Amino acid sequence: MKAIDVRYLRKEYRIPEKDPGLAGTVRHFVRPRHRTKVAVDAVSFEVEPGEAIGYLGSNGAGKSTTIKILTGLMSPTSGSVQVNGLEPHRDRQKYVREIGAVFGHRTGLWWDLPVTDSFRTLSRMYEIPAATYRANLELFTDLLDLAEILPVPVRQLSLGQRLRVDLAAALLHNPRLIFLDEPTNGLDVNSKAVVRRFIRLLNQQHGVTVFLTSHDMADIEGICDRLIILDNGRKVIDDGVDGVRRRLTTTRRLLVTLAREEDTAAVVSSLRASTGIDCTVTDRHQISCEFDPGKTSAAHLVGLAMRDHEVVDIELREPTLEHVVQRLFAQPPPVPQDHG
User: Fold this and answer.
1) Which of 21, 156, 164, 172 is deepest in the core (most CB within 10 A)?
2) What is the pLDDT of residues 266-314, one digit of tens each?
3) Where are the beta strands (DSSP E) in 97-231?
4) Contacts of 262 (CB under 8 A, 6+ apart)
């Protein structure tokens, strides 16, 4: 059974249109006009149990709408959605026992209660066996460093502390699948690192399926193995992280460090004459060359540099995922992939 099975998902919104002013309001009341906005358009994909999926797209691409449908907060206009064999918006009472969800700045805990009281209340709501509750609480307290904040009311927690307890709360009942919508938004660097390590551990060691949306590419690279990318409500890419890099990147960067500072200009000139590539001097002893691996290779460039000069170090840099995704949305959209 698939963890998630989405077939030709479509979600439309009816948006009222009225002319400005009191007269426009009256006319709209008597004869309302609407336009249809398509937020998600014929999107299909499957997620196997234990996968870690990054669900990406620019603002308004349809990410949040999809997550609301997958978590049962919203029903689709058409198409089919099954999560762990259930239809989220139809089987909601049973379904919520199978998933966990963390939505950025919104907490699912009780604002005035100490964290431990919120956890105990959730354990009764989900009917978590006492042994399971104790084991999970101990594990999450250790991994998320919760010991000092368990007695503290939720309203007194910092954003980073609250997110950590929200993660623990979403996982107390051992869900097989967790949805994360911008889970590190607004956190400091250290808090982000703790959250990423925790989610990755749950995925890799405990087999929890992760479905993540984030604008922070470090979240995606640190947690996900596969990316589904939307543009204007349609799926345009579904591939592994490395596959996305290969498909969308045409250049690599080679850094060559020379033994003598005075050789840098000569090497830049020699490489330009031999390959047509314009390298730049980035340091007293170092040059940087951006090249298309389909036209030449790093080994060829290094060989040319070493032919008459002493090279002491080389470094080949792959483009960051953030750079790749930025380039994707800066160019005309790829042809949508409508198959599953």
Assistant:
1) 164
2) 899 988 988 988 889 888 889 998 888 878 888 899 888 888 889 989 8
3) 99-103, 177-181, 209-213, 226-231
4) none
